[in-house]
Amino acid sequence: MIRLLAFLKTYLLHHLQTAFSSLGKLWESPISNSLTSLAIGIALALPACLFILLFNFTQVSSQWQDGSQISLFLQQSLSDNKAKSLDKKLNTWPEISTTNYQTAAESLAEFKQRFGMDDLLDVLPDNPLPAVILVELKDEVQTEKINTLLKKLNALPAVEHAQFDMAWLQRLRNLNKIGSRGIMLLGILLSLSVLLIIGNTIRLTIINRKDEISIIKLIGGTNSFIRRPFLYTGFWYGIFGGFIAWLILLIVFYLLDSPVNNLAGLYGSQFTLQWYTLLSFFILPFLGALLGIIGAGFTVHQQIKEIEPK
Amino acid sequence: MIRFGGVYKRYPSGQEALSGLSFHMEAGSMAFLTGHSGAGKSTLLKLIAGVEQPSSGQVLIDGKNIVQLSKSQMPIYRRKIGLVFQDYQLLHDRTVFDNVALPLIIAGADHQEIGRRVRAALDKVGLLEKERNLPVALSGGEQQRVGIARAVVNRPMILLADEPTGNLDAQLSSEIMQLFKQFNQIGTTVLIATHDLNLVQQMGYAEIALKQGRVDAGKMA
Ligand SMILES: Nc1ncnc2c1ncn2[C@@H]1O[C@H](COP(=O)(O)OP(=O)(O)O)[C@@H](O)[C@H]1O
Ligand SMILES: [Mg+2]
Questions:
Q1: The domain that contains B202 carries what CATH number?
Q2: B165 within domain boundaries
Q3: Domains along chain A?
Q4: Is the predicted ipTM greater than 0.90, yes or no?
Q5: What is the per-residue pLDDT for A166?
Q6: From the CB of B35, is ligand 1 less than 6 Å away?
């Protein structure tokens, strides 16, 4: 037991020493290694940026009412009674879940409350807004059916115009899906490029240290012993790249923050970008380190087999 | 300790370096491997170190056929062999101390033991005050003594040296040879390849003379 502990202690100490001597080696050529880390940082920051934007956007758009809704703008001349009976009739239609009748006066009140243009509206002689019936469709109603329903509603004599409100939201959500797939793909491609950047850099280091590797093999170094410092080099590249990516994100979102909040304010919602950006502080270096070790691992595994002592 | 039985070594180029070589060295003995350039001295040492494999025949080290060692067993086996090279083969970005410590670090020795053994080895070769230096700051003779300290620090059962004095003058050469003698006296089996016949005669140890890939029978004592 004591022996095992002593062994573990020696082993951990060796790992620590290897990790820091790898770090020290990177420090010996600061410029080229900073450039490598920067390249990794940019490759990580780009998909992370897009992902955070998309994630925020999804959050915001999901606050917008779900389900599909049709607004029926009624003829100005239609009497209140007739409108109410139409409302009742619509309730019995199989595609419709609920309806909500709103008189012209109520429409005006809501408009005033939402947009606060009291003075302007008071100037107008008549109420310019029509009475509206808001029709909630049942969830299972499909898009093709919505179109025939729309035609049917538009054909009603009492209806001036029937408008499917959610068409644009639907389109937006489809775009959103395409966007997230695109970002995923981009993320995979750029992660691959991180693997390649790290792999290639390590490959060059290995070539430079061929003699050293061959000597270590001659005096009984195992492959995993030889591999270790290079894996740590990959680890450091990745972690630095991750921090740089995080810095890039901070800068980007600092610059975007106020315009985005202004825009969001116009739509009556709140974008909270900072929170996700801070979270990426933990994820990006971790992801970078992981990619670094994997990238280094692949290269080192291949290269070290080829170096045999002479 | 070292037993070759009918060993042939043909390189991929078609060059035959060893042609049915047989010899035996007792544990704890010391011998010189002589012969002209191209006689097969380096090839013989590489077979013992497991760097090259024989084309046919047996290489038994400490009773074990090293051809049968697996890839993962080879590093462990090599830790029992100390190697000294003509061109020293030191790591130039590490201090003398770190160079000598390398076999111990590889073997997973603990911190205190590394310090103790490295200093003992450096003391034996007379370089204790130079432990913080980089190899470039040392003379050729000193670099070779660092190479020897590294070869013996792990207390190998066999010490192999390929032309260890090839780059050194006569005075330094005989100092280096005295070191090998001392390590042999504490029980290490020592085999030194050299073409410096004067030195061999001075030292008065057994000689394995190679000629065209075989033991030169005319010269055997
Ligand atoms: N890696 C190699 N590939 C092909 N031929 C080699 C190789 N190493 C040595 N030889 C040949 O094998 C023969 C023996 O070489 P070597 O063992 O180096 O002799 P020595 O060390 O006695 O000078 C020489 O003819 C040499 O050219
Ligand atoms: Mg030779």
A1: 3.40.50.300
A2: yes
A3: 31-64+171-306 (no CATH), 69-165 (3.30.70.3040)
A4: yes
A5: 63
A6: yes
B41 pocket-lining for ligand 1 (C-beta < 6 Å) = yes
Facing residue for B105 by CB, picked from A14, A212, A308? A14
Q: Which long-range contacts (CB under 8 A, 24 or more apart) does A60-63 make?
A: A60/A264, A60/A267, A60/A269, A60/A271, A61/A169, A61/A172, A61/A173, A61/A176, A63/A269
**A12-67 pLDDT, tens per residue?**
988 998 999 899 989 988 999 999 999 999 999 988 888 887 777 777 666 665 55
Closest ligand by atom to B39 CA: 1
Give domain status of residue B6, yes or no: no
Closest-CA distance of chain A to residue B204, Å: 29
Which residue has its alpha carbon closest to ligand 1 atom 7?
A: B11
Q: Is B15 in the pocket of ligand 1 (CB under 6 A)?
A: yes
Model confidence at B107, pLDDT cuts 50, 70, 90, reads very high
Burial (CB count within 10 angstroms: exposed 0-12, middle 13-18, buried 19+), residue A141: middle
Better pLDDT: A276 or A225: A225
Q: Residues of A with CB below 8 A from B110's CB? A: 6, 9-10
Q: Is residue B121 part of a domain?
A: yes
Q: Tell me if B110 and A10 make a contact (CB, 8 A cut-off).
A: yes
> In angstroms, what CA-CA distances link A235 with A144, A188, B154, B162?
53, 19, 31, 39
Q: Is B13 in the pocket of ligand 1 (CB under 6 A)?
A: yes
Domain count, chain B: 1
Q: Give the tens place of pLDDT for each residue, A9-27.
A: 888 988 998 999 899 989 9
